[in-house]
Amino acid sequence: MDWQALALSLKLAAWTVALLLPVGIVVARALAWRRFAGRRLAEAALALPLVLPPTVLGYYLLSAFGARAPLGRAFEALAGHPLAFSFAGLLAASLVFNLPFAVQPMQRAFEAIPADVRPAAACCGMSPWRIFTRIELPLAWPGVLSALVLTFAHTLGEFGVVLMVGGNIPGETRTIAIAIYDRVQAFDASAAGLMAAVLLALSLAAIAIAYSTATRAEPYRG
Amino acid sequence: MDDGRLSVQVAQKVLIPLDAAFECGPGELLALTGPSGSGKSTLLRCVAGLERPARGRIACAGRVWLDTRRRVNASPQQRSVGLVFQQYALFPHLTALGNVTAALGHRPRETRNARARELLASVHLAGLEERRPAQLSGGQQQRVAMARALARDPQVLLLDEPFAAVDRVTRQKLHRELAELRRTLAMPIVLVTHDLDEAAMLADRMCILHRGRTLQIGPPHEVMTRPADALVARLVDLRNVFEGVVRGHDAATQRTVLDWHGVTLDAAHAPSFAPGARVAWTIPMSAIVLHRRDRPSRGEHENPVHGTVQECLALGDDTTIGLRVAGARDALLTLRVPTHVARRNGIAVGVPAGASLLAEAIHLMPWRDAVSEGAG
Amino acid sequence: MHAPAAVASTRCGFAGYSAVVIYEGIRRPVRSRRAALAAALAYAALTAAAPVPGADVPNVAAASDLQFALPAIAAAFKRASGRDVRLSFGSSGNFRRQIGQGAPFELFLSADASYVESLARERWSADDGVVYAIGRLALFVPQGSPIEPDPELRGVAAALADGRLRKFAIANPEHAPYGRAARQVLMRAGLWAAIEPRLVLGENISQAAQFAVGGAAQGGIVAYSLARSPALAGRGRYVLLPAADPDPLVQRMVLAKRAGATARAFYEFLQQPAARAILGRHGFQVP
After folding, report:
1. In angstroms, what CA-CA distances link B67 with A26, A163, B14, C8, C117?
2. Which of B67, B205, C46, C287 is deepest in the core (most CB within 10 A)?
3. pLDDT of residue A213
4. What's phi and psi for B280, nearest 5 deg?
5. B358, B287 contact by CB (below 8 A)
6. Chain B neighbours, 3+ Cβ pairs < 8 A
7. More confident residue, B330 or B94
8. How far is C280 from chain A, CA to nearest CA, in Å?
9. Residues 60-119 (A) with a CB less than 8 A from some CB of C
10. Contact call for C45 and A11, based on CB within 8 A
11. CA atoms within 13 A on the CB side of A100
């Protein structure tokens, strides 16, 4: 049982969720309520990671993060080590391929708020921030939570992109999914089996939470 | 001068066309009436600050909320409006008390709870404070919305078809409650409704809107019996709109003589129309009296007309009769009588009948080609 | 180095952020207490598994055929010097590519000399490194396989001819040295054309061994060091194949220019008799 790999996976998932919470909310609100040119295109682009094979995603991300790309070089200048094959690179890749998992459920949740509720709150004298925290978030919360849990579970299990962008560096980019692969290659079936079971249990728990919070949204609807 | 008055002028050509101007004094209820798509709700939202017209000026209680020429545009939070939305827009996750308290942010924290309970009691919802909107009936939700709008201590109360979504019994109850509530309110109230009877019942003044333009503003009785032109007449559901030519005026009897395609009528005195002028004229159904068929005419009737019954439609207690008038180029006169009267007089399609048009109720309007087209 | 400052400031930033979330959570009843707990857990998870700053534990990239030999050597190194190394196994070609893209390895044990030479040309290393072992090939057949193992691959040829051989595993000749060597062996035996359509290619020599052992293939050409290891003992039979010719599997290792003290010490240790003995025991030819 590679505890370091499990801790690394949890760390990656937790960071991804923490960063995608504000980003996802901002993007989801904009897509739910603003009409702007190219909105449909933006939604389609956002959904790309859902349909692209991880290798395609990994290839493009590696090209963007590599030591020869502008982004990779800028990062290296700031941080002193390359973006690819580092935890930071994994996190950046994770933010990209989890974007639809975070944004779509949140967007649905914000869209489900009845159209006049926000104007009504404005007429009650509530500032935009209060409207967000007292009205929008509580009403959209089941969708937001569901998005975060799905993102968490998806990150735990991601393999292809992590392997391409992160390599397999213990403690830095060897997540639990990679560790399982590694143990299988080392003919260590028992370790691999144990870790696979742990990952399965975590994913199952996450999905159960996501589904139960999604249905809890119903009590408000008359 | 701060007398609590609301004054609105807005105009725009794109999206929803608007060209409206109206005023509403403190304690007065102004009804914005018109067919769907006439921009009533849009106007209300402009007053609330939820929409911004291309050009306009909106001021209330001495404060300018919108002035496009001076780039002044207060947000809804900065204006002090109470708006009751068509579907109430209550916050589904808060209780009735929570909904009302949400609008009490301008009051000190310790007083909010008590004030919210007071407001809910004033709309007859005491005891239901802890219920969520989903657990309240349509009428109760409307009352919560009203209490929430009033909680803001607004300078103008805006009601966007607040009675449209409830059944007739509840609606009548709510009408009474609004009338009661008005006695305690000192602010202007603007009510948007497509129901003319509701407007006539509740409003001090009525404003007729058509495609975003204000056509006429005045007390309901005046608008509905003395419309400004044929279009307004149609909008206030006056069925009898006809063409005529002014023959002359008689100041002594306070009557104007009107020629209706060969039939001579005495109309209410309207000296502003020159003799020989082409006019449109209208008469409300209530001012047309059916002649009793069993008693022959003794020539004392006012403006008698005769013809054949073309339509006879009994709807409950009232029967609507369409009378094809002989001589007036076969114009169709519509009148309404109680069903038992129609039956007693043997009114049926094809039967000859006569009616009197009360002179005082015949109202002359300027002839406007595009607008008066279709007048009989 | 900006890294410690960056790490510290992001930690502070995140601590502040989670403090706000937890505070908001505590202000609201029930449902939010759970949210606060979740936030606390998240914070713990986020700061866990952080690499201890300052400790010199180098990343070592090693060819997959060293899967069993190298951990034993690392253990001996630890006993001797008290220091740790982090091992990653994979195909030499993959490592070569990743290193070229900036992967943070300090020592590279390749199964093919040419990869080391190209890294030296790119100035990743200060020199050409040293040969630490000569790799050898074995033919492995799993339990129940219809193939009879023999060094001339006659059993393979027979099974191929009468259709008993459906799948045969080797490492990918494109980037795995053992795969390339296996291809040469098959070509020399005149079997390449017939067997090519039936090949399953492993990402590296370990995965090729997986396929051979797992029964998905009826046999395979794997690293001798893997075939002899305890993990495969009893799973099948194997036979050592004659040295690959003209390219013997000369396994070269090299230090990165930026390698730290521990990496250098390990590099030296690998050339000592103790380490070489371990390599020999695992089936490598030591120069």
Report:
1. 32, 60, 18, 52, 77
2. C46
3. 72
4. -105, 145
5. yes
6. A
7. B94
8. 20
9. 62, 66-67, 72, 76, 78-82, 84-86
10. yes
11. 12
